[in-house]
């Protein structure tokens, strides 16, 4: 196995110069040509840093955890890719962990307690309240919450949930729909509250009345979407359009409507927040509003890096690119 000495010998420089360049040290005062020569030598010799020794020296592992409620969720992949790409550029590895309501049953507390990570990005489950999160992650470890519930003093990076739902609502209104239903997240969820606010605000700005009987707050899961449809269909007058606060619940909405013999979009149009490759695989393909989840991941990782290295507590909302409507076959103009 190649050593720093081997790399230094091949590159014709000192061991200390190799160490500073390969560790990305800010005080590595070498020319661009010398820097390239060191990297070329390390690559040719297949040099691998001793991360265990480096962690002891720096009191850092250069590893962070990304904690999400469900690793099988299709919309998690974009977030994960953004975190990984930003982490790679900053010299950090990313571990994945799953968090349910009882965080202590899973990996994060162990990673914290054993000093295996320098910080964590946490997308908390909707049912986890801020006080619970504070109790679960009370270690002094740098934590940034990702578009989810968080303690009042916790750093966060969020999306424009309210605007995203407003875009979805406006799409149905522009198609002539006035009696709209909203399938929302849990009332305890900060994203759920923002999204229903976006729906109500856009309806009000169009001079339309919201029927509270057509507003549900059962959650973002597929089964929650199905349950919401059953609740909506029990009303005396059915909606002609449904805005769904999450694509996964949107799949449940389409499935339940079909099982009830209701055709989309002939009988009711459906649009959902968030986009994933699975939206093209439903029947009909689901109209969505794509949110910048890749950019959210990059911004969250950058914020966590700054918190680890500088103690900065982020309060960031990702606005670029803005929410983007992707029209598929689940929405159509209202036939009068």
TrEMBL record:
CDD domains tied to this protein: HTH_LacI, PBP1_LacI_sugar_binding-like
Pfam families with a match to the protein in the record: LacI, Peripla_BP_3
Superkingdom, taxonomy of origin: Bacteria
InterPro entries according to UniProt: HTH_LacI (IPR000843), LacI/GalR-like_sensor (IPR046335), Lambda_DNA-bd_dom_sf (IPR010982), Peripla_BP_I (IPR028082)
GO molecular-function term, one example from the UniProt record: transcription cis-regulatory region binding
Name under which the protein is recorded: LacI family transcriptional regulator
